[in-house]
Design a protein that fits this description.
Distance between the termini: 28 Å
Strand content: under 5%
Number of helices: 12
């Protein structure tokens, strides 16, 4: 149990290799399997993550959380249609959560679906959870693509306040700071990437 606690802390701090090390010594329970899946995802080992999410659900971890994690890993593994199928199988209160709305928006965007639907889903996710880093990043990216620089900057800054911050958030925010000749702030963004993802 202590190894699971240490692993969760390492995962939250972005120290993924350490998290895997502790989880390999853990009790093999549902929580350990779930965080092993999240850690594999963070290390871009998407198929391992999918397998671990399945095992975590079988061990008793919340099935909807595991399904959302599985959908994200499938999407990141360039299997967006499979991810959408997982999301389509979910129903009920989960469909009103920020995480579900974010995953659906990101998956529809990956498939090349309706951009207005993507933005609407991201906006709903941010309304539900104003600190959801993925939804903030997605909405910022959509605004950035449309030339809405002020809105994009505000959203990237909000997303960057989350720990650990998404690499894309820090990179895009750094570029925006460079474009505005705010080089010290840009350098801080890039340093955070190096610190969080050595």
């Amino acid at each position: 149990a202590m190894n699971v606690r240490l692993a969760v802390c390492c995962h939250l701090l972005g120290r993924y290799a350490k998290a895997v090390e502790y989880l390999s010594k853990a009790d093999g329970g549902a929580l350990a399997l779930y965080y092993l899946a999240k850690t594999y995802h963070a290390q871009s080992e998407y198929q391992k993550a999918v397998d671990q999410y399945t095992q975590a659900a079988q061990a008793g971890y919340a099935a909807t959380d595991c399904a959302l994690g599985k959908a994200e890993s499938l999407r990141c593994a360039d299997k967006a249609q499979d991810a959408l199928a997982v999301l389509d199988d979910l129903s009920g209160p989960v469909e009103q959560t920020a995480e579900y709305l974010y995953q659906r928006a990101a998956t529809i965007a990956a498939i090349g679906g309706n951009p207005e639907e993507v933005v609407a889903l991201y906006e709903r996710a941010v309304q539900i959870d104003g600190n959801h880093s993925g939804a903030l990043f997605g909405l910022a990216l959509e605004n950035d693509r449309r030339g809405n620089d002020y809105e994009a900057l505000q959203l990237y800054e909000r997303a960057a306040r989350q720990t650990p911050a998404h690499v894309g958030t820090l990179l895009n925010l750094g570029v925006m700071y460079e474009d505005a000749n705010r080089f010290e702030l840009a350098a801080r963004c890039y340093q955070r990437i190096i610190d969080d993802y050595p």
